[in-house]
Amino acid sequence: MTHRDGRGTLAPDQPREETRLPAPAIVRPGDTRYAELVVGYNQRWVGTPESVRLAASTAQVADVVREAVASGKRLAVRSGGHCYADFVTGPQTQILLDVSNLNEVHYDPARRAFCIGAGTQLGRIYETLYRTWGVTIPGGICLTVGIAGHTSGGGFGLLTRKYGSVVDHLEAVEVVVVDADRRVRTVIASRDPEDPDHDLWWAVTGGGGGTFGVVTRFWFRSPDAEGTDPAHLLPRPPASVLVGPAGVPWQKLDEDKFHTLIRNFSKWHEDNSAPDDPGTALASILFARPKSGMGVGTLTQVDATVPGARDLLDGFGAAVVAGTGITMAAPPREVSWLASTKFVGGGTLLYDPTLRSAVKSAWMRRGFTDEQLGAVYRALQRDDYPNPLGVFQLMSMGGRLNAVGSAETAMPHRDSVLYAEFETFWTKAADDEVNLAWLRDLYAGTFAATGGYPVPGEIVDGTNINNPDPDIIDPAVNRSGVPWSTLYFGANYPRLQRVKARWDPTDFFHHSQSVRLPG
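RESULT FIELD:
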């Protein structure tokens, strides 16, 4: 079999790999591994597929897809297993294709790019790229997230202000697709606008997973990189960073101080988020938990190698608490970038795979209004919600993320200074309704003026497909009158539909929030 190589020419399938491997491992009900493999990191979604296929090569992926097409069975694909919705491990899935064994990271001199298997977790990527070549991609903080879903939704993290989104460094992608005649083939699509398959590359840069085909490999190289030395083809993270934790308990906060803290945090980002602003050396996460929890805290990271790094960190901390009369900061620590990545990625802010969870999100063009902050405060202070694992969270955005036009990649959110998450975790299925009700009330109250959802406007710019929200398609909950497709993809959705029509014309790859065929 052959495929296009991203430059408009045909090349042999699997240029680096294989000696063809045997059939992928198959796990069926009754196997001791089955219960582990039919659930991801969110225990709310437990599938009952007829089988789980653990593919270890692109050819194996194509074989599994071919079998599903021939049998007419519903296929879903998993990389890292961090989906918040039932796109993968829902009751509709009959064959679950697990690509976690596609986890190689290597430099490909033919493309002058780093080739990363679709099942590779972010922690492995960071370790391998940095230890071997001193480079990285500006991805997320949770180390067990898989690269396929992360990239397909845009991908961002603590280095995004300095280096942009993950997809801003995507050079090419390999995808197994299903044609109109139900023929399965493998395509490599590239960033090169002259590539006849360029539109498939574009769709993968934020159009979400499970829509266009099965991604098997990514190639990463920064768009302005020159030469053939791998050490200069992706961003080089700082040798060391200052990590500054800070916090204040609820006992020292009232509503006015809470408002002031959040306003100050937001205002600093409004003022320091131009693409080349020196403040892009700093990224921070603010989190506030219900009153049964810890209160309000921040975790801030600054490139320790830039001039005035400590002054930047201290100035930020002072700006956040200005006018409150409280002190939050603890002495910062200077550690290596990789050590910081492991610390943040392994911290309690992140995922316990034994928990149930739900999340909602918003891209923030500027800070919340006082009315919105009042709704957040009231939700966090409720006496009838004793769960300390609920969280309202703000993360630094802006900087180089906003140096790319909203239509240059499928991920359209290119003028935000903050990213907001509304999230909760719990343990028992019996507690689903109370936790979902609290989260819905928090979110609906925050965006009450626009029907309970962050309708793009002066303050917000929709929501994030990588934090999928099952409620967004329910008009009883999303009363905004704005479709989920606009909230996720903005003006890019019609183009995504055209790409869908070309590359998945039979809608073989679909779930409840995948891109729809036009018409």
